[in-house]
Amino acid sequence: MKQKITVFGSYVADLMGRTPHLPLPGETVKGSVFNMGAGGKGFNQAVAAKKTGADVVMVSKIAHDPFGQIALDMMNDLSMDASHMIYSETTGTGIALIMVDENSSQNEIVVVPGACGEITLGEVERCAPLIRESAYLLVQFEVNIDALERAMEIAHEAGVKIVLNPAPYQKVSDHLLSMADMVTPNETEAESLTGICVDSEEAAVKAANMLHQKGIEDVVITLGGRGVFISSGGQQRILPPFKVNAIDTTGAGDAFNGGLVAGLAEGMDIWQAARFASAVAGISVTRLGTSKAMPTRDEVEKLLADNPL
């Protein structure tokens, strides 16, 4: 049985250009492709969950402007519930400037959060009934932290499972971290959280144990091309990645997080959900863009069937 997921997080419009190489400081590089679309970590994760079959509601803050309309149009196309989107009358919709190296697929991103960085505590309280009736709350660090912490407190008090994707990393209180049932950093974020360079499985174990000591039950560290490390219920190991032809890694972490929570909400255990999420991410990097690169459930099922464990 599917359970409801609330994604409380960022929406920004993605402005993406592909270049032969990423520019050095002061350098101008002639690009080859430009795309504009819906993005932001929260929004990308919600789309990934929705397209893979989840019952998901997105909460973010936008403005009545063309960049905000891009989000509403995509939500309408996907039959996503937009009734809990918040509107700013003073600040424009956020944007992300994305540069992608068309040879290596590596990227550089500048995020200007705009409206989604100014969610008020009153606006969070108006979302409290939605959060309380959800099975999972998925959050990131791309909105203002006071609003994020209050949303997590509401969920924690109601017994809602909280999945925290600590990206982009910023220092937060141990109180905030302790409310998360699961944390999903990449290697860089895991190092920022723990001070441990996650360059091996042994280091991942040490980082995970430190996060467990902060009160977090499950730790999932994404390792890019090395797969994903999971520490849960006394078991700790790396799941291998899917072998794909990556052309744009932007949004891969968001694809993983959306797929992970979609799997969990269906009743998969953490190992099954992580493999499902790896398939979602694996397909997403074979396409340009972020939210529009998220695969359908049928595509994910086919990749899983073609690559049995």
3D architecture notes:
The chain is α/β, with parallel strands linked by helices and 309 residues long. The protein is 37% helix and 24% strand. It contains 11 helices and 14 strands. It has helices at 41-51, 66-77, 121-126, 128-132, 145-157, 174-179, 187-194, 201-213, 252-265, 270-284, 297-306; strands at 4-8, 12-19, 33-39, 55-59, 61-63, 86-88, 93-101, 107-114, 136-140, 161-165, 182-183, 218-222, 228-232, 235-239. It has an 8-stranded mixed β-sheet, with helices on both faces. Strands 3-2-7-8 form a 4-stranded mixed β-sheet. A two-stranded parallel sheet has the order 5-6. Strand 7 and strand 8 form a beta hairpin. Helix 7 (187-194) packs across helix 8, helix 9 packs antiparallel against helix 10 and helix 10 (270-284) packs across helix 11. The longest helix has 15 residues, at 270-284. The radius of gyration is 18 Å and the shape is globular. The two termini are 25 Å apart. The mean pLDDT is 95.
Strand and helix layout:
Elements (H helix, E strand, L loop, with lengths): L3 E5 L3 E8 L13 E7 L1 H11 L3 E5 L1 E3 L2 H12 L8 E3 L4 E9 L5 E8 L6 H6 L1 H5 L3 E5 L4 H13 L3 E5 L8 H6 L2 E2 L3 H8 L6 H13 L4 E5 L5 E5 L2 E5 L12 H14 L4 H15 L12 H10 L3
Parallel strand pairs: 1-4, 1-9, 2-7, 5-6, 9-10, 10-11, 11-12
Antiparallel strand pairs: 2-3, 7-8, 12-13, 13-14
Helix pairs in contact: 1-9, 7-8, 9-10, 10-11
Distance between the termini: 25 Å
Structural class: alpha/beta
Counted beta strands = 14
State the low-pLDDT regions, or none. none
Rg from alpha-carbon coordinates: 18 Å
Approximate helicity band: 25-40%
Report the average pLDDT across residues: 95
Which strand order spans the largest sheet, edge to edge or round the barrel? 4-1-9-10-11-12-13-14
DSSP strand content? 15-25%
How would you characterize the largest beta sheet?
8 strands, mixed
Count of helical regions: 11
Quaternary structure state of the chains depicted: single chain
Q: Would you list the SSEs in sequence order as H and E?
A: EEEHEEHEEEHHEHEHEHHEEEHHH
What is the 3D form? globular
